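re the bet — no i am not wrong, look at it urself. input seq straight from the record:
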Amino acid sequence: MKPLTKQQLVGLINSVDATRDQELNCADCQNFAAEFAERQLVGLPLNEALARVEQHLVICPECREELLALKKILETSG
């Protein structure tokens, strides 16, 4: 097994630092993704559950990518 590069190590430490006691998993994040994207697009504040979506997006590149795709769809259909 190769040792981590400095960049990988920094990324890992940042991910660990970004974790919280109560976090959503990917499935829960996806359940709230549409509401989260809609509120972001129109500038509405986030409730507690949606704030946890935002936190999950900090540490999950897959969910971040899916949310970006969803936002593009919402922007073009609106």
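see?? The chain has one domain: 23-77. told u. also DSSP finds four helices and no strands in the chain. so pay up
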